[in-house]
Amino acid sequence: MNNSIKYVYICSAGHSGSTLLDLVLGSHSQIESLGEIEHLSKNISLNTACTCGETVRGCPVWKNVIQTAGKKLAVDILSSPYALNMGFPSPQVIKDKIHTTTHYKIHRKYLRGAQYLSLKYKMKLLNPLLAKVYESIDHTFMIYDTVRSQLGCQMIVDSSKSYIGATGIYKRKPENVRIILLTRDGRGVAYSNIKRNYSRNKAVKGWKKYYSRAIRLFDAVMDEKHLIKVKYEDIVKDPSSEIKRICSFLNLQFEEGMLDFANHTHHITNGNDMRFLKSSEIRADNSWKTKLKKSDLEYFEKHAGDINQQLGY
Q1: Residue 207 contacts by C-beta under 8 Å, 6 or more apart in sequence?
Q2: Which fold has domain 7-310?
Q3: 83 vs 19, 136, 159, CA distance in Å?
Q4: 72: Cβ contacts below 8 Å, ≥ 6 apart
Q5: What is the mean pLDDT of the chain?
Q6: Is 7 in contact with 173 (CB distance < 8 Å)?
Q7: H or E stretch including 230?
Q8: Residue 68 is inside which H or E element, if any?
Q9: Are residues 15 and 189 in contact, defined by beta-carbon separation less than 8 angstroms?
Q10: pLDDT tens-digit profile of 242-269?
Q11: Sequence ranges of the domains in the chain
Q12: pTM confidence score
């Protein structure tokens, strides 16, 4: 089967199952999952854990990838990790000192906003301001292709989640990129955020902002045949059927072993701790249905119920 698809990007709000989907897809014989690869420079800097059990600098795969990328960029990436420009992530848990500065946060917000306007409204006047953004896209594809070459796989899965980042990647090579928009009932996401001590407003506002903006941007930029919408609830209800549907979208044959993802070696450098679990059990987390306070549920329905309905909930 002739397959031009080389890059798969998972977009979702946090706590929506992107790590699970990434692990399952990365267990296909022709796919390598990279997790939230936009954090790679930070992971190199802090020498965080790779899912294979080694550190990033100690992992044989990443050692070779970093060395190859360094030669292409003519720089020692181990000494200067941020010479590898993977974009402008917003780390939530493990942070390098660079990501805690006011300058970085303001600069990131400015660049993301400018990139969104450039993509959605085709504002070419903004292009000179986005040189670092375009460089990050170049470097990201370089990492994608270096991993593909090192491991001999057909596709790379990037679960960095960013709808702006995904659209920038897509625009560069639309025939080779496919986007998965992963959703989860917003009430479940809100409950997960509230459990993590987010304010009710922040727990709901961030989720609503993500999907309302992502939908508008995707509608404006992407060919609908290059985008698939997937629900977390469908994955956990019938993993086999839903993963088969995604494989069909990617022009790949479903492999039963994909569902036994814990028994595959992965090289994910950033994501939630589910990537380290030794069990391949897939089960639904519907605790919000009994534990979300009535007042929080009413708040959600008032402020984000419309988007939830638009997503099919």
Answers
A1: 13, 186, 189, 190, 193, 304
A2: Rossmann fold (3.40.50)
A3: 27, 10, 22
A4: 142
A5: 96
A6: yes
A7: strand 227-231
A8: helix 60-73
A9: yes
A10: 999 999 999 999 999 999 999 999 999 9
A11: 7-310
A12: 0.96
